[in-house]
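Duplicate of #3305? Posting structure anyway:
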């Protein structure tokens, strides 16, 4: 073929291998296959300054965090809506910030994304300030 004669067989093979490598890197490393949700801490005290940060982490096929990608997601409080206030990060870095109000109990937050098969439900406990003194024997 005239194409191989013009460029050389080794050059064409190298370009094909390079393109295949780029495609494999995209599918294995940069594509989002699932999301993982991490809440730290899972217990809040009422009327305190502490907040719980809920991170939505995109995972690739290897189970590692996907770099340079953001996950569009929605959330709703499905239990004890009046116990907390939630603010979504404005920078779009897959973060929710939860702060407690003046009631104790368990709050359940449902998070959905186009990359998750089912909605994820996170439970946060809101405890009173005197409960911490009894637990630290």
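Output from current build:
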């Amino acid at each position: 073929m005239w194409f191989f004669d013009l460029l050389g067989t080794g050059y064409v093979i190298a370009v094909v291998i390079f393109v295949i490598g780029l495609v494999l890197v995209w599918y294995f490393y940069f594509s989002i296959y699932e999301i993982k949700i991490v809440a730290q801490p899972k217990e809040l005290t009422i009327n305190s300054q502490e907040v719980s940060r809920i991170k939505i982490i995109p995972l690739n096929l290897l189970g590692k965090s996907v770099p340079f990608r953001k996950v569009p997601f929605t959330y709703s409080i499905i239990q004890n809506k009046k116990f907390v206030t939630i603010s979504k990060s404005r920078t779009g870095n897959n973060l929710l910030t939860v702060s407690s109000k003046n009631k104790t109990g368990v709050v359940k937050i449902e998070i959905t994304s186009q990359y998750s098969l089912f909605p994820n439900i996170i439970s946060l406990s809101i405890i009173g300030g005197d409960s911490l003194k009894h637990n630290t024997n």
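Confirmed duplicate; merging threads. The longest strand covers residues 51-59. Helices lie at 2-7, 9-30, 131-135.
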